[in-house]
Amino acid sequence: MRLFGSMEIKDNQLYIGGISSKELVEKHGSPLYVMDEALISKNMETFKAAFKSDRFQTEVVYASKAFLTTGMCQIVDRHGLSMDVVSGGELFTVKSAGFPMEKVHMHGNNKTWEELEMCLDYGIGEIIVDNRDELDKLERVCREKGKKINVLLRVNPGIEAHTHEYIQTSTYSSKFGESIFDENIKDIIKKFIAAEHVELKGFHCHIGSQIFDEKPFFAAMDTMLKFIKQMKDEAGLDTTVLNLGGGFGVYYFDGDDAVDFEKFCKEMIKDLESKLDEYEIDLDKVIIEPGRSIVANAGTTLYTVGGTKVTYSGKKYVFVDGGMTDNIRPALYQAEYEGVIANRINEKTEDLVTVAGKCCESGDLLLRDVYLQEAKEGDILAISTTGAYNYSMASNYNRIRKPAVVFVKDGESKVAVKRESYEDLIRNDLKLY
């Protein structure tokens, strides 16, 4: 298993943030989400330092859907990043954490009336409008409240990126945004310009997630700049802001060629600056939205082994006390991870096993046909790169309680999310009789 950030091997154990996996489980229980705070901070500073230009302002926006808690909001604020939210729940979390609301960007393809009201009441900085119907809804909400709001229009540049089909977001049939190739796109833009309560600042695009090939990103930039030039000439829109989204690929499993974020951001800036001259346009600000690339490698999930079983076919299973309730990605995307027996990490990995969770589903498999150290009851299994979309997508299927989340740094662990109790599971239940 590849080690990231503060992960290290000492005394035949995996340490994270200066604390052994055994100590973390003894203190906080399992399953347990462990977040390396130092690596999260380092990644944020890397993006901020690399994505800078003397030609235009730059803004790094954390895509909070990857991982969001009130504590995470505090870390994002401490490093001066802005925040991307996609629901009323994420918006409420950010507000409750005391995050500066003028640095919040609201996304989503079907924002409710209530969510749009929250945006206006909270005084957020910008709404990314998904489509022409949403513009009409937003205009009505603004009129009712007597307020105006800055917006970007999400557009679809038609760039296909090599990633799982579920996380491609820029194909011609995507549910997100208005296509720049729509024959009515010029009229749509003019409708935004004429709107009384919204101020169209520019455009947003996002081609997908977990993309390793850098070429589609540069293709999207070029397509967007040509589109900005076209809308200036044909619709009279002077675009001031361009949001290029995120989706930069990270390492999960052997064979993943992760994007070098520092190098890539600098190349993006260089390419953007030259293209602005080429197309004779100016921009006041360019935005990117890293999420997974900030938190994924900083997360590790620790499980306790309950036992093993060899089936009649000869397949060997290792059973752990979590599963698809704390990591749905293998079942949903066929995502692959790396893992180790964390309390005996130096032993030889000669056992070919499949790691299964405790849910009543045949597809509840966390690792398929991988080599591990021999697992025994009570051992600690660590699965790496679980910082993004694991806690965020956790569920209570089978009425299984969600794990705790701890941040580790310099030998200390802080609980960011308490482990759910059985009482939490029935908190909103009402008896009928």
From TrEMBL:
Coiled-coil intervals, chain numbering: 262-289
PTM-bearing positions, type N6-(pyridoxal phosphate)lysine: 65
Pathway: Amino-acid biosynthesis; L-lysine biosynthesis via DAP pathway; L-lysine from DL-2,6-diaminopimelate: step 1/1
Domain (Orn/DAP/Arg decarboxylase 2 N-terminal) ranges: 39-296
Assigned keywords, A-Z: Amino-acid biosynthesis, Coiled coil, Decarboxylase, Lyase, Lysine biosynthesis, Plasmid, Pyridoxal phosphate
InterPro entries membership: Ala_racemase/Decarboxylase_C, DAP_deCOOHase_LysA, De-COase2_C, De-COase2_N, Orn/DAP/Arg_de-COase, PLP-binding_barrel
GO biological process per UniProt: lysine biosynthetic process via diaminopimelate
Cofactor: pyridoxal 5'-phosphate
Domain of life: Bacteria
Top-level class of the enzyme under EC nomenclature: lyase
Domain Orn/DAP/Arg decarboxylase 2 C-terminal: 33-387
Any Pfam family matching the protein: Orn_Arg_deC_N
Catalytic activity: meso-2,6-diaminopimelate + H(+) = L-lysine + CO2
Positions that bind pyridoxal 5'-phosphate: 247, 289-292, 389
PANTHER family, per database record: DIAMINOPIMELATE DECARBOXYLASE, GROUP IV DECARBOXYLASE
Subunit field text: Homodimer.
UniProt family annotation: Belongs to the Orn/Lys/Arg decarboxylase class-II family. LysA subfamily.
Name of the protein in its database record: Diaminopimelate decarboxylase
Organism: Ilyobacter polytropus (strain ATCC 51220 / DSM 2926 / LMG 16218 / CuHBu1)
